[in-house]
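Q: I'm building a small set of examples for a reading group on sequence design. Run inverse folding on the following structure and report the sequence directly after it, with nothing in between.
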């Protein structure tokens, strides 16, 4: 068992104090539920001298219905998202995803902000100090090479958060707080295709809220993942799907987003070909092919990229079929 190193814990009560602490304290990290960060600190992957705990900031703790939809504070815990009646009713993929994260204890402490900003993961990185040292570390942490793609200079560690794909299919935006105050951006824009540095946030910036637009009638969404142990594990591959039908029972909107198959949660492109169509065998095969072609898992887990690509294609096809059939039945 590795012991936690010493660090100083700061508990700001408002957004500006958190930002000020982050600017003033060298080697500092924001802390939310700590269910990922503290594990990484214990393993020596992260060595911050200061932790800035965001959980005492009241203004990021609410789930609120607004004129334009729903606002979820970044400090809201996953069990509250999972159990929220409005999330279950209007954004079911988001409730599914919260329910699929780790186990019930993690859901009680883990937060929306921590899940969205979760570090990328890799078989060669999320290991103990002695394990990483005996492999001469890797590009993401102290080392010279990538064990996944030894010839290259890129890190392919996979973004493995479950919430983001579900939020993405519902068109989520996030509010970021930084030195210029609060600003809003599409959730997809806070991610970069870089396992080493996957968040598009400037120094000190942090996520304060997630906004979901009002959900329309005649739409359904769902999230499903594949994992080794059904009770607790990170996704090997995960898919969120949202579909709406028009009066003629043809597709008016379709959105699919993936997790754990790239360094960022990926929105599947090209689905507009299905708008105005009924879903049959040909269209389902088209979905599967498109997903399999766009997902680019690497050897970052114990399970082969080949298998994860097949699985993510199959889950996507299955979900599209299920949601379409359920919408047809009304
Ligand atoms: C055994 C185990 C299984 C797990 N399984 C899963 C799983 O199946 N799916 C999954 O998604 N996760 C899983 N996790 C990881 C983790 O529990 C969740 O991702 C959780 O949501 C992280 O949230 P947190 O509040 O604990 O984040 P923390 O650990 O506190 O922080 C995570 C990261 O986010 C940053 N951060 C936190 N809040 C903010 C903010 N508001 N703005 C900017 N940056 C911020 C932190 O600096 C840190 O880098 C698992 C963890 C364990 C230990
Ligand atoms: S993908 Fe390569 S560089 Fe990135 S964490 Fe894995 S081994 Fe390290």
């Amino acid at each position: 068992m590795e012991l936690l190193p010493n660090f100083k814990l700061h508990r700001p009560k408002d957004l500006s104090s958190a930002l000020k602490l982050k600017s003033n304290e060298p080697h500092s990290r924001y802390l939310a539920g700590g269910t990922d960060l503290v594990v990484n600190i214990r393993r020596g992957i992260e060595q911050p001298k200061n932790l800035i705990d965001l959980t005492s900031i009241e203004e990021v703790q609410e789930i609120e219905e607004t004129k334009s939809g729903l606002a979820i504070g970044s400090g809201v815990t996953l069990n509250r998202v999972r159990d929220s009646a409005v999330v279950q009713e209007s954004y079911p993929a988001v409730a599914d995803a919260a329910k699929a994260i780790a186990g019930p204890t993690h859901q009680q402490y883990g937060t929306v902000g921590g899940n969205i900003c979760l570090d990328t993961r890799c078989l060669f990185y999320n290991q103990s100090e002695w394990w990483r040292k005996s492999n001469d570390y890797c590009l993401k942490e102290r080392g010279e090479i990538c064990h996944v793609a030894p010839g290259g200079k890129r890190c392919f560690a996979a973004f493995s958060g479950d919430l983001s794909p579900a939020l993405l299919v519902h068109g989520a935006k996030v509010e970021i707080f930084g030195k210029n105050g609060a600003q809003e951006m599409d959730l997809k824009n806070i991610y970069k295709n870089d396992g080493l540095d996957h968040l598009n946030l400037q120094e000190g910036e942090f996520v304060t809220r997630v906004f979901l637009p009002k959900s329309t009638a005649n739409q359904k969404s769902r999230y499903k993942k594949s994992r080794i142990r059904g009770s607790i594990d990170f996704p090997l591959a995960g898919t969120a799907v949202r579909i709406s039908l028009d009066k003629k029972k043809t597709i008016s909107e379709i959105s699919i987003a993936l997790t754990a198959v790239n360094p960022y949660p990926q929105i599947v492109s090209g689905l507009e070909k299905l708008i105005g169509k009924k879903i049959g065998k040909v269209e389902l095969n088209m979905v599967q092919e498109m997903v399999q072609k766009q997902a680019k898992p690497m050897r970052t887990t114990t399970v082969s990229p080949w298998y994860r690509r097949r699985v993510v294609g199959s889950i996507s096809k299955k979900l599209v079929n299920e949601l379409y059939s359920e919408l047809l039945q009304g």
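The pocket of iron/sulfur cluster (ligand 2) is lined by residues 122, 124-125, 138-140, 146-148, 155-157, 195, 300 (CB under 6 Å).
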